[in-house]
Write the structure tokens for this entry.
Amino acid sequence: MSIDSKEYFSEELHEECGVFGIYGNDSLAPAYACYNGLLALQHRGQESCGIAVNDRGVISGHKNMGLVSEVFSNEVLDSLTGQMAIAHVRYSTAGGSVRENSQPLVMRYVKGTLAIAHNGNLTNAYEVRKELEMRGAIFQTTIDSEAIAYLIARERVNSASVEEAVERTMRQLEGAYSLLVMSPQKLIAARDPHGFRPLCMGRLGESIIFASESCALAACGAEFVRDIEPGEIVVVDDEGVHSITSQMSGNKKKSLCVFEYIYFARTDSEIDGISVYKSRKEAGRILAREFPVEADIVIGVPESGIDAAIGYSEESGIPYEKGIVKNGYIGRTFIKPTQKERAKSVKLKLNPLRSVLEGKRVVVIDDSIVRGTTCDRIVKMLRDAGAKEVHLRISSPPFIWPCFYGTDIPSRGELIAVKHTIDEICELTGADSLGFLPPDKLGDMLFGQNTGFCDACFSGNYPTRIPEKMLSGKERGGVDFGKKLPPKKKADASCLGKDEN
């Protein structure tokens, strides 16, 4: 984790990255498989991407800032020959948005060459980095992934194998990490003992593939085999596939980020045995039971609110309609540096269908409210298109705590639910009513799995120790949410939801 961080404000949440790796053979082009896999994982990171290939022990690669289709051409992919490869897409929640921080990282050390791709944030990264610097390490990046690579290289000197070095390194790490490590002879996948971030394994003929999500396996024609278990290390080499369980795994509670199901993962993925699509539909069904309302249509905010909107419609019997159209070619609007530019980007990105909305009582479903800088514009947009009533439903609980495991949830002072009650948020958005998914229903959304996921951003119950160095800066003051409540005016009683704060 770098002390440096982004300072622009965004209403959308973003996950740090996605990883993809393949152990193939001469009859398959690993770089092209990685390209297809990264396209399927593009939603997990749009700032930079890269591919590193291994051609009989010689590791080389290509990476740059930009989308996968911008960074890789046929000419570049044809030059990346080899038998195995790892790849990465990145959105920087930690470290600056510069080419040096793009992955995979390729490092040369006394035992040869090592390439690494990492998804997640370490909570003890500052401590690890400081200890390495005091021993003379010189860092080329500001990302915690480089600290992991340094530890693996250091442990490899005194280990019998690369996988043993990875296991020894895991004993020194805290926080979230789904890793792909490529040595001259082996491809290794590892998932932290809490399983904060997803990682799965597939097979394409004789080739073994690892990916952050199962949708990436399908994109290159591979068959899903299984999820990598928390604390598990899977090694692929000429002798086949074998698994190691880290000594760190025994006393750790599984804590997969619940927001993978709410928003991050692609809707056609399956994570740890649960369909993302079905979980989002179930969230919508829960909202319909918890916060019913008389309305004419249900719509979803593209793309994240659509699945929950379908579930709300099925449970309530209110017809589902496509009420908002998304411009899929607008680009990366979430990095607009000023509030004025972000407001303009919402109009460019989303457009209401007046023929559907005019004169209707509308239930609109979205995945979250973070700072509250976008939802009021969506409500106004629907009213300007002729909606008679707008009832806002959110398929997650209110955010009241920051994340330290790879999600860019900002400081507490910037979270609207910390400074305002749900009734006040309702009035600030201009909605006729507002309902959030109750925190105690998260397990129901996952079909009864009341344990095994991390909900710290909603509850403040962090599964790991959070060092003071990470906490500093996460309590800074709030931002202007764009509106203020009239003095001494109570919120409309029609706004729904219990005050969680």
About this structure: Residues 1-10, 332-339, 476-501 have pLDDT under 50 and may be disordered.
